[in-house]
Amino acid sequence: MTNRLVLQAITRTFQDGGNERMILDKLDLEVAEGELVAVMGPSGSGKSTFLSIAGALLEPTSGQVLIDGEAIQGKDMQELSELRLQKIGFIFQSANLIPYLKVEEQLILISKLAGTEKARAGQRAKTLLDQMGLSHRRNAYPEKLSGGERQRVAIARAFMNDPAVLFADEPTASLDASRGLDVVRMIAKQVKDQRKSAVMVTHDDRVLPLCDRVLWLENGKLITK
Ligand code: ADP
Ligand code: MG
């Protein structure tokens, strides 16, 4: 079994006045392909810091992150932005769609940035929109979509470049219960079908049955309760 995401002894400190505060303390994690891991923990426990480091958006103070077996420490800015585009998908609490692009164009833009040929990008966008139940919204602008629809576009966008690893930071926080469940069901299905590794930070107990494992961030480490 392949672990598409591996974190080894990740430590992160922040300066707080004159003091150094340890937010992550030799944190280890391995996520297998096809596995969706939920991460819970109180506000301020370091969940977003952890996700940012795992997603190559923030450098750890020490430790190593491997995406699809490839170490990210030591890469320069250009290499990191390439890696994020090719290997990592993000879904945030709000969909962050571009207001002046139609649904389909939001997806094709991401492919274009990664240098994918146009016809292939169009085909992939079509397939993903079908899978998200959004085919009929293909030519809609974000302002015409419901919150749930927007979040489904954000999921399709995150999967557009066929990433190895998917990160979601409270993807259901702005949705009602049933839409939230739908969104996580769709994430889980894509992760299974396409053998991704995925980590989702959530406060939403109702979506936990859809996850393979639940971990808590406590005292800078991920633990099982
Ligand atoms: P969570 O997502 O679990 O609420 P965060 O990872 O956002 O937690 O933050 C964890 C702690 O680290 C908080 O106390 C926060 O104030 C602190 N922190 C986060 N980012 C920074 C930063 N850039 N500089 C200083 N402190 C930070
Ligand atoms: Mg957070």
TrEMBL record:
The keyword Nucleotide-binding is assigned to this record: yes
PROSITE patterns: ABC_TRANSPORTER_1 (PS00211), ABC_TRANSPORTER_2 (PS50893)
UniProt-annotated location(s): Cell membrane
Gene3D superfamilies: P-loop containing nucleotide triphosphate hydrolases
Keyword entries, A-Z: ATP-binding, Cell membrane, Membrane, Nucleotide-binding, Transport
Residue ranges of every copy of the ABC transporter domain listed in the record: 5-223
Molecular function GO labels: ATP binding
Keyword Cell membrane in annotation: yes
Parts forming coiled coils: none
Membrane topology: Peripheral membrane protein
Reported function: Part of the ABC transporter complex hrt involved in hemin import. Responsible for energy coupling to the transport system.
PANTHER family referenced in this protein's UniProt entry, alphabetically: HEMIN IMPORT ATP-BINDING PROTEIN HRTA-RELATED, IMPORT ATP-BINDING PROTEIN
Record text on subunit structure and interactions: The complex is composed of two ATP-binding proteins (HrtA), two transmembrane proteins (HrtB) and a solute-binding protein.
Family: Belongs to the ABC transporter superfamily. HrtA family.
Name of the molecule in the record: Putative hemin import ATP-binding protein HrtA
Provenance organism: Paenibacillus chondroitinus
